């Protein structure tokens, strides 16, 4: 990485742009907010963009002919273009609005289900799945990128397979090479694990998948908010991420797709706005992306997401990535040098970003979480919607600290101190 990390003064200026941090930092009772992987705080620019839109320009986008509708539709489609440019889509039409990443992944899995139930559109044959075909995922997936594929396999008779994780919760290119077969039709995996922080070698994986003719689906929830991501350059067929993890609003997520694949994917949810012609017997659908956006859209959330992309771009995501990496190194060093703390995922920090999850020997994660909460350290405890991964690691839950572009060294140190405090409090200290 060649970009320069933010200076402490720049981080402080960034924090001042977030009402949440400004309020707490000024009052001096600030929590250490280390839960951005679950949901991020929003800068005033995002909150203001939503409010301004609702106060001055709210109208039913893509419906009707008034100037007001035209203006609102312009804001809605402008945000689509901004998101497209941000993630390396060649055209805005490659960006489909969804409720969140979970919904975006379901649009693909359910759509392929429709294609196989005789409800396809022109070109849907490319998604044909049946007995003998395979859907491949990894054991490290978030449930959002696991259950939709389990169900698609059950519906179509395809075989559901997965790449088992290694002892540290990671998996490698070689593991993928061994698991991909000429029968693999779909390969779905996370760019960055929400438990181990492991960064998958996406471009190489896409190449392997292409060689056997498999469609790739990337869960980019934990990458897009933290590092510059170019889906076009990576070559993925589909990708999904959520607005609320990247300084944007709740209720808005994104599905990215390669044009020819989106064109061949039937809509699983149907209704008003997404159609060209409807009779009492049948319906014909719009081209993507509107085909996948039936009903009234979350317009102010879309406008807010556009503002979030603008904020991140101005802040400089490449510099944020360097800064965040330094914080992850600090976390990993603090965890690995403390006896009794088990770091989940690679100790080699060049393989990970964004977060660290730990298991504290002799203390349940919920007890750790309660202790940390009392110290004002906000983290996520539990299985983080990745039960199979925790099971593979021989635990049921862990404690996760995640960083973002506003995180400070002090917040990281408070987390590490609080973990050690929890060990002492619960009598679980381990001598070196
Ligand atoms: C890796 C990963 N995938 C998918 C999701 C689901 O995101 P959402 O709940 O916003 O749909 C998350 C969120 O926790 C995640 O971390």
TrEMBL record:
<keyword id="KW-0456">Lyase</keyword>
<dbReference type="Pfam" id="PF00266">
    <property type="entry name" value="Aminotran_5"/>
</dbReference>
<dbReference type="InterPro" id="IPR015421">
    <property type="entry name" value="PyrdxlP-dep_Trfase_major"/>
</dbReference>
<feature type="domain" description="Aminotransferase class V">
    <location>
        <begin position="33"/>
        <end position="415"/>
    </location>
</feature>
<dbReference type="InterPro" id="IPR000192">
    <property type="entry name" value="Aminotrans_V_dom"/>
</dbReference>
<protein>
    <recommendedName>
        <fullName>cysteine desulfurase</fullName>
        <ecNumber>2.8.1.7</ecNumber>
    </recommendedName>
</protein>
<dbReference type="InterPro" id="IPR010970">
    <property type="entry name" value="Cys_dSase_SufS"/>
</dbReference>
<comment type="similarity">
    <text>Belongs to the class-V pyridoxal-phosphate-dependent aminotransferase family. Csd subfamily.</text>
</comment>
<keyword id="KW-0663">Pyridoxal phosphate</keyword>
<dbReference type="GO" id="GO:0016829">
    <property type="term" value="F:lyase activity"/>
</dbReference>
<dbReference type="InterPro" id="IPR020578">
    <property type="entry name" value="Aminotrans_V_PyrdxlP_BS"/>
</dbReference>
<dbReference type="GO" id="GO:0031071">
    <property type="term" value="F:cysteine desulfurase activity"/>
</dbReference>
<keyword id="KW-0808">Transferase</keyword>
<dbReference type="InterPro" id="IPR015422">
    <property type="entry name" value="PyrdxlP-dep_Trfase_small"/>
</dbReference>
<dbReference type="GO" id="GO:0006534">
    <property type="term" value="P:cysteine metabolic process"/>
</dbReference>
<dbReference type="GO" id="GO:0030170">
    <property type="term" value="F:pyridoxal phosphate binding"/>
</dbReference>
<dbReference type="InterPro" id="IPR015424">
    <property type="entry name" value="PyrdxlP-dep_Trfase"/>
</dbReference>
